[in-house]
């Protein structure tokens, strides 16, 4: 049986309700809407990384990446990214920040691995809680054959063996 | 071959267009946006459970749960819940209703099963058709090994056996 | 190992940022938010199919369908469609266009295949970049046993064989 597990980096703030920052089950990993809060500190309520779109977007993507890494995954495994912006004037700026973030990530790789396939994306303008300018969530499909992602026992169970 | 099937509790209203209240295929179950309509009655158009956020949210979650159960699943199988609210002032109240609903559900379980792992979530403020305050959809991943969710034949097909 | 691949019909415009029009990995196919741009032409920026909801919605659905077909899939494989409208007055009209599109598609089939199971759907009203009235994305689950969707080697890898 494939268990659902949570992926919650220790630095992330506690969710405001009964939801998980991320869950994985089988080869599906779902990252909840990240909103760019600073790393958790005792006695401080969740605090945005800064007042600007740039600060919040970069923190949001870093938080999503930390979750993916905790799940043994990375941006290459991400199928869909949903970007929610609060200001229609932020669309072009968000695209710039988004592209720089992904370009920077891939520049650290060996040349042969530098041309990844980006995830699909939908970007919409919505309302978010006060002070938040962006919320980003992501759906990833993990590699089944990658060691650690699925035990032999789990795989045998799947085929009734 | 893995067939797509619909999960449509008999009490649910007919969708306003060519969409299904929920579909399942393989181990993926997708619940469409539920909006808290009262159980269907002949000669009555779809009617919200009430004018308040509480009434609509509780009905919405109950409708999603009925769909999950018809699919042999439950909240534990849900990976992602998307909450769409129309009023930015409703965020905190929705969280309270949300938590009470899930806490109440789990209190009915044996103690050993009382600490489930909640789904990931994204909450945004959008516009909805007049009179509706909340729309909630959910993505679930079912247990493959659970009897009935996947036949032996389907599993063998997957490995080319 | 299951590779992620892009599905990008040649006529589609280049995305505005580092995202793919669609990606497939294993049996999951995710269509990014389609917004009804006319087929790409050199030296012309992405241009909506027209100023009306009808033109944009029909183009959007046609673009999504072209992607599905490039992935060896079709509407029958789609589990979830997210419709994002900018104007709350467009809901009923969109439903009419939506239904006509799907009815028309299925009328071209042999009678025995004319009653497909529509995808689940969530429809919300949001903001979109200027000039765009609708954005539609879709999540599909492909048939694993269908030839070409998954090699024997991939399947054997899954069970550790």
Automatic annotation (TrEMBL), chains A, B, C:
InterPro entries: RutC-like_sf, YjgF/YER057c/UK114. Residues 1-19 have a biased composition (Polar residues). It holds the Pfam family Ribonuc_L-PSP. Residues 1-20 are annotated as: Disordered. PANTHER family: 2-IMINOBUTANOATE/2-IMINOPROPANOATE DEAMINASE RIDA, 2-IMINOBUTANOATE_2-IMINOPROPANOATE DEAMINASE. This is RidA family protein.
């Amino acid at each position: 049986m494939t268990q659902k597990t949570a992926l919650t980096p220790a630095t992330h703030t506690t969710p405001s309700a009964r939801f998980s920052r991320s869950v994985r089950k089988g080869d599906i990993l779902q990252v909840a809407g990240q909103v760019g809060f600073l790393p958790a500190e005792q006695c401080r309520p969740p605090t945005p990384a800064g007042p600007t779109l740039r600060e919040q977007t970069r923190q949001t993507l870093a938080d999503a990446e930390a979750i993916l890494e905790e799940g043994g995954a990375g941006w290459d495994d991400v199928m869909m990214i949903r970007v929610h912006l609060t200001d229609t004037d932020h669309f072009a700026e968000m695209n710039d920040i988004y592209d720089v973030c992904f370009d920077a990530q891939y520049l650290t790789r060996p040349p042969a691995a530098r041309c990844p396939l980006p995830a699909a994306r939908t970007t919409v303008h919505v309302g978010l809680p006060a002070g938040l300018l962006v919320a980003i969530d992501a759906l990833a499909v993990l590699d089944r054959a990658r060691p650690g992602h699925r035990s032999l026992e789990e795989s045998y169970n799947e085929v009734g063996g």
